Amino acid sequence: MTDRPPAITVVIPVLDGATTIGIQLAAVLGQAVDAPFEVVVVDNGSTDGTPAVVMGFGDPRVRLVRETDRPRNAGAAKNTGVRVARAPLIAFCDADDLVADGWLAAVLAALQDHPVVSVTAEHGRCSPGLSARSCPAPVVEHTFGGRTVFSGGAFGITRDVYLAVGGFDPDARGAVDYEFALRLHRLTGLTAAPSGAVVHVRLRSDPVAAFRTYRRLHASLVDLEREYADSLEVTPRTAGVAARDWRDLARATRWLREPDLRVQFAWLAALRVGELRRVRYAVADRRRAGRRTPGRS
Fold first, then answer.
1. 38 closest CA partner among 18, 57, 19, 20
2. Domain range holding 241?
3. What H or E segment, with its residue span, contains residue 147?
4. What is the per-residue pLDDT for 34?
5. Rounded to two decimals, what is the model's pTM?
6. N or C terminus of the chain: which is more exposed, having fewer CB within 10 Å?
7. Number of domains in the chain
8. Residues 144, 218: contact at Cβ < 8 Å?
């Protein structure tokens, strides 16, 4: 054990992650780096024995912070982790994923030259229940509306920059990492530089769970399109494009006959249903426009 202060703090938010947090924590503690680091696990109100798994490691580099009164979402937990961090650099990862060998060293090295860095999300290793046809290819850089955003809940950032932009929105739902990246660019002009680090992301293998998760995600992306419309490159969706997309979904129902493609159908269906939020916004906009039109009775 070194007496030197940590050069980087790894923040791991968790909620009822007893079955996966041990695997992720072992992978983080096994990282080979030429600098001291600490791990802050923020438990956001688990009821499944997660704290016991974390404390069972008995590693002095690990601190467990229990936050039972905060919103049960990863954004609020990450804010807490950064607030108690002792290092000037922060690396995030999720409790149900698996950081690859060399992940922390790559993030630490990249943060010497850039204030914020992204990672590559690999989807196959932690999703053995999904076939190669259902797993998306590794993503080196996620973009949304022409802006670089974060994937897999994992990225690196200096603590000063994180605090300067206010951290994560604790009330946000869905694409919280996307929202943080867009707000970071709006306030500072910064975008993430690739680090070369890899995180093995665990995808939903149950079609119902996948549909619920990605429906919420895509609905929140519609919200972000409106909130950050001034800085995004978004192509308006015409009625013809929407009709074509729904026809494609109808044709894709044949995937339901193939077990290894059912999750892929659930993802596609979640995308279409989540995008229905645009209809709600369009109706609300027309109503507001009608109320502003002079001469209407």
1. 57
2. 208-292
3. strand 147-149
4. 93
5. 0.88
6. C
7. 2
8. no
Q: Which residues contact 239 (CB under 8 A, 6 or more apart)?
A: none
Total residues belonging to the chain: 297
Residue 1 has pLDDT above 60, yes or no: no
Q: How far apart are the first and last CA of the chain?
A: 77
Given a contact cutoff of 8 angstroms between Cβ atoms, the answer to whether 233 and 143 are in contact is: no
CA 219 – CA 38 distance, rounded (Å): 36
**What is the CB neighbour count within 10 angstroms for residue 152?**
24
Which of 170, 203, 236 terminates a domain? The answer is 203
Q: Would the pLDDT of 297 be above 90?
A: no
Same domain? For 162 and 257 the reply is: no
List the alpha helices (DSSP H) in 94-206.
103-110, 159-164, 176-188
Calpha distance 232→162 (Å, rounded): 22
Residue 3 lies in a domain: no
Buried b (16+ CB within 10 A) or exposed e, 189-210: ebbbbebbbbbbbbbbeebeeb
Report which of 4, 17, 111, 3 is spatially closest to residue 64, judged by C-alpha positions.
17
162-178 burial, b if ≥16 CB within 10 A, otherwise e? Answer: beebebbebebebbbbb
Answer yes or no: are the C-beta atoms of 37 and 9 closer than 8 Å.
yes
